[in-house]
Amino acid sequence: MQKIMVCIKRVVDYNVRVRVKPDESGVMLEGVKMSVNPFDEIALEEALRIKERGTNAEVLAVSIGVADTQQQLRTALAMGADRALLVQTDQPLDPLAAAHALLAIAKKENPDLVLLGKQAIDDDANQTGQMLAALWNRPQATYASKLAIDGTKATVTREVDAGLETIEVDLPAVVTVDLRLNEPRYVKLPDIMKAKKKPLDVIALDSLGVPSPVSFKIVKTEPPAQRQKGIMVKDVSELVDALKKKGLI
Amino acid sequence: MSKILILGEHDAKTLNPATHKCVTCAKAIPGSHITVLLLGADTAAVAAQAAAIQGVDEVVRIDRAENAHPLAASFAPQIAALATGYTHLFGPSTSFGKDLTPRVAALLGVPQVSDLMAVDGAYRFRRPIYAGNAIVTLEADPARILVATVRVASFEAAPSGGAATISSRTLDVSLPSHTRYVGVHTGATDRPDLQTAARVVSGGRALGSAENFKLLFDLASKIGAAVGASRAAVDAGYASNEMQVGQTGKIIAPQVYFAFGISGAIQHLTGIKDARTIVAVNKDPEAPIFEVADVGLVGDLFQVVPELSRLIGA
Fold first, then answer.
1. Domain assignment present for B115
2. Which of B11, B181, B312 sits opposite A240 (nearest CB)?
3. CA dihedral (A51, A55, A58, A59) positive or negative
4. In terms of domains, do B61 and B162 share one?
5. pLDDT of B47-76, one tens digit each?
6. CA B31 to CA B106: how far, in whole Å?
């Protein structure tokens, strides 16, 4: 294991309650706290653990986005990534376009393993890892809750609807991570200072020569339908009566 | 006319009800011709089930020994090869469909709509973003195949009563050997399936231990319910991962959902807001779950659950 590439997305922090703009043109992002997508943080933590288990692999954090995405890459460096790369663009990319850009980086960097979150908590698309694996013509192991590297193979336990599925993939492979793979470490102040000296390269998306994205037209963005507030009952027998009235028991 | 290809999900014996829900979604597109595609080692039994769904015109089988387990790396090139001529390709928003469908989309060189929740036209759809805090309406280009995963909680299962034709296809597609199935560990029970159950009893961190979940299993047995759990309960090890309900777990739409000791984090509410009736029991009167509950009771679940089991059983 020589090199692990971890893909990081800058997203609205998970503690922010996102609101829709009154003109339905999108969600309000002005002045909102931005963070590393929590699933990508788990992916990075796993890369660091593989490195620390003695493989000593180089951990490269890659992101695509606006110039300010450097903040999230600095966080990745502070967590322990060795270097970072920002593919800069002001245009929001959908997962297929992101996968094309990541493919261009993967072809340059030749990682043995690509790790990323199973989904980003902004668009909840759950596509980028699978699309990158398809374009790269390499294995994919999605929703990983356990990952074991053995030479040129990885054994991955996947969280699926039926329970836990295990597959074996040849490396290089794309692994998307689920919540229970690990608990990411906290960044300490000295690590933040050290991260300032680590290399963070910025290249323009246009320089990669990836196909121009085909995307959907977003017609409008609306708030979801609200549920009506229901009734409160004071004890279990009232609860049973209410359920009977609704024909539920 | 819209020619719609649906990726059928099955375990060789039973067609997953997610497939019936994809059919309902496809039927919402005017003038649709619906084909269910089944890949497996032997899909004879599930093909008969698919052919019996009302609204399905055609069932196509690709039987091949390598298709015994649904590996996206093997399934995707076969589906991409067969997709020519279709205007739409729908997979279910289950772990099967979410894993597989984007790989097919990328091979076809098209973007994907994830979690399609409503059909406004043949190329106009709605989907949730930000854990359901916003709903976007999208328009797709009719010049290329529209690939989507269908949010199964948003659609009823199509009834049986159809009689579609069944055909078998052999594809000259070489499959990769870089991905190998090892096995699956299921918490299999004879309880109803969480994703399709009409009744779900669910517990949160307040349960305090895996042993205490037995209280919920007892109640569930009485009323024929599936048992679910919040992310906090799964993270704490009180319940297994396949029981998790929420944005990153299962999104469900039962007739009635009982939430015991679940505070109602936004990511959990995302998973249950299509339930017909939500019943919440929580010690904390300020718990956000009461904002969405149809019937709420402030109380200690360790008293409420046994009493409820007793009263319902009487």
1. yes
2. B312
3. negative
4. yes
5. 999 999 999 999 999 999 999 999 999 999
6. 27
